[in-house]
Amino acid sequence: MLPKSLEDRLKKLINQDNVMLFMKGSPNSPKCGFSKQIVALLNETNVKFGTFDILEDEEVRQGLKEFSQWPTYPQLYVRGELVGGLDIVKELQATGELMNTLQPSS
């Protein structure tokens, strides 16, 4: 179980932007192939997204895995909800659902 302070911090980070990506590195300098691919897919949508470099904060890196019940990175959140990792984002793009997922419902 996560300490309440860490859980609160994770919730705040997750909700920092409507679309929030937890990745290794930064969009301009991804530190793994999966992060690079997911950034490329998101950039194609022209949807603004925030990022957090999980390599810069071990507490967040370990805590978010437990919080989300998702063991790997990158992790994409939209409006505070976990969408998933690269495989799910690729699948959403292939089925034409990625834009609907990323954009706020009207």
From TrEMBL:
InterPro entries: Glutaredoxin, GRX_PICOT-like, Monothiol_GRX, Monothiol_GRX-rel, Thioredoxin-like_sf
GO terms for cellular component: cytosol; nucleus
Glutaredoxin domain span: 19-83
Any one biological process term the GO annotation gives: intracellular iron ion homeostasis
This protein's record includes keyword Membrane: no
Residues the record lists as binding [2Fe-2S] cluster: 32
Domain of life: Eukaryota
Stretches of the chain forming a coiled coil according to its record: none
Alphabetic keyword roster: 2Fe-2S, Iron, Iron-sulfur, Metal-binding, Redox-active center
GO molecular function: 2 iron, 2 sulfur cluster binding; disulfide oxidoreductase activity; metal ion binding
Record-stated family: Belongs to the glutaredoxin family. Monothiol subfamily.
Name of protein: Glutaredoxin
Organism: Homalodisca liturata
